[in-house]
Design a protein that fits this description.
By secondary structure, this protein is of the alpha+beta class. 60% of the residues lie in helices and 11% in strands. It has 12 helices and 6 strands. The protein is elongated.
Length: 504
């Protein structure tokens, strides 16, 4: 019995080894197939929503009183902002300009094309789930050597042969690498979708801001022209006094100098107006030579009284940049899964069916069916390093998400402060203008009876001019801060990631 065992052991070693390798392959194949569809790597979990309840230490619902005759504002925390928020300014000219910008802006066209590209890349990634079928053909002229196919092979004549047919290959995706790549491509598509949303919001915001700047500059030009008209009245008053012998030529020259100095304010303002008009043309997708901006009038616009604002926990779903940061985080998570799947075996099936034959003879069908397994054994640490790099990239994406949220909170807080400070500025500028008007009126009366000099009149007029300009700018700033808050709150753009995911 002992001899028999030795004979069986030693005499059957190659067969037993072959059986052992077949058994290992079969076990690996069965285990892999049983894991099919089980993606390795971490499953994505969205970051927790912020715990903050407010944006400021104190109440932010009452920005302050702007003074008599001015529009008061209040913040409705937890309310929803409408997507066409610019219509709340009550300017048909502005509504038409924003609509034109959203339909014709080239930056939006770029973002829209990037969304389409990302969608196609998702479709391309999904192609990895299906068998890959290719046509294959070949034509060869061959002469066999003397040592091929036996000693008589050298007698085979030179011949021409061809083959043509189909090849099919299929990756079982046992460890979910392909699924993770699809997840990665889908997350990248969401990033581009939110980039389009952010671009639309930016274009709308920039258009409204440019329109407000245009209206503010026009209002400032009107103030300067009023001041110039007042300067001309001063000159007439001084010339009349000079003719009566109660004013000197120096008084006349000083009044003329003031008029010339005030006229010098107009060219820079006209330059700012022209630059703003050109910027508006580019925003609406036109050249400055072919499009003229409407005559935006700050006095005909309506400052929104009720300002809806999402609570901090909802802001993360309201802002496109935060949603894009979360999509980048999801992509980084999927990249960890892709790198993890590369550490595991890949099992593929391939098949071919073709017609083969001599070019001058008959053809016959030929086929093959092959199962393959490749498993990484030694890559010099490359695959593990790639996984660690992907994990580090995830940590960076997570920190970027957190920073994006904090930056959003800062923007909201800054503009809430801005509402209060802008209202205070309007109230104080009103008071300054009232004081300047009273001082100018009294100084002119005093000059008329000889109790004040021309220099005093001009100084009083200068203070009145500055107060007029400052009030115009303060009023425009309230619009600017309000619009900034609308943009910082996400512009009412809905979360489209779920609809996009369903569409895919």
């Amino acid at each position: 019995m002992t001899t028999l065992r030795s004979t069986l052991w030693w005499g059957s070693l190659p067969e037993l080894a072959l059986r052992h390798r077949r058994g290992r392959f079969t076990a690996t194949l069965l285990a892999s197939v049983s894991l099919a569809g089980c993606a390795v790597g971490p499953d994505f979990s969205a970051p927790a929503h912020p715990a903050e309840q407010t944006y400021l230490p104190g109440p932010a619902t009452a920005p302050g009183s702007p003074g008599r005759g001015e529009t008061g504002q209040s913040v409705g925390l937890g309310a929803t902002l409408q997507a066409d928020w610019w219509t709340r300014l009550g300017s048909p000219e502005l509504d038409g300009t924003v609509a034109l910008a959203l339909s014709n802006n080239r930056t939006i066209d770029i973002a829209r094309a990037n969304v389409a590209k990302a969608g196609e890349l998702v479709t391309a990634a999904r192609g990895g789930l299906y068998p890959q079928v290719d046509a294959a053909a070949g034509l060869a002229r061959r002469q066999y050597g003397a040592s091929f196919l036996g000693p008589q092979a050298f007698t085979f004549p030179t011949f021409s042969a061809y083959t043509g047919g189909l090849t099919v290959s299929y990756d079982l995706d046992v460890f979910g690498g392909t699924h993770r790549k699809i997840e990665l491509a889908a997350a990248d598509a969401d990033v581009q979708g939110e980039a389009l949303n952010a671009t639309r919001l930016t274009v709308a915001g920039d258009t409204v801001m440019a329109a407000l700047r245009y209206a503010s500059i026009r209002a400032q030009i009107d103030v300067v022209q009023t001041v110039i008209a007042s300067d001309q009245q001063n000159i007439a008053l001084v010339q009349e006094a000079h003719g009566a012998g109660v004013a000197t030529q120096m008084d006349v020259t000083t009044a003329q100098s003031q008029l010339d100095r005030d006229r010098a304010f107009l060219p820079p303002l006209h330059q700012q107006l022209d630059v703003t008009r050109d910027a508006l043309a580019i925003l609406v997708g036109k050249s400055p030579a072919t499009w003229a901006a409407p005559a935006f009038d700050l006095g005909k616009m309506t400052l929104p009284q009720d300002i809806p604002l999402a609570v901090p926990s909802d802001l993360v779903r309201a802002r496109p940049d935060i949603r894009a940061a979360e999509a980048r985080l999801r992509a980084a998570n999927a990249a960890v899964g892709v790198a993890t799947a590369d550490l595991y075996p890949h099992i593929t099936l391939s098949a071919a069916i073709a017609e083969e034959g001599l070019t001058a003879g008959p053809a016959a069908a030929a086929w093959s069916l092959v199962g393959g397994l490749t498993a990484p054994i030694f890559h010099g640490g490359e695959l593990s390093a790639r996984k660690r790099a992907a994990q580090n990239a995830y940590q960076a994406a997570f920190a970027d998400y957190q920073q994006t949220v904090l930056a959003a909170f800062q923007q909201i807080a800054d503009n809430l402060h801005g509402l209060t400070n802008a209202a205070d500025a309007v109230r104080t500028e009103h008071q300054a203008l009232d004081s300047a008007n009273a001082a100018l009126r009294l100084t002119r009366l005093g000059y008329g009876v000889g109790n004040a000099g021309i220099v005093q009149v001009l100084d009083a007029q200068r203070l009145q001019q500055l107060a007029e300009l400052n009030l115009v700018q303060a009023r425009a700033q309230r619009y600017v801060v309000t619009v900034n808050l609308f943009v910082a709150a996400g512009g009412g753009i809905a979360d489209t990631s779920k609809q996009m995911a369903m569409a895919r």
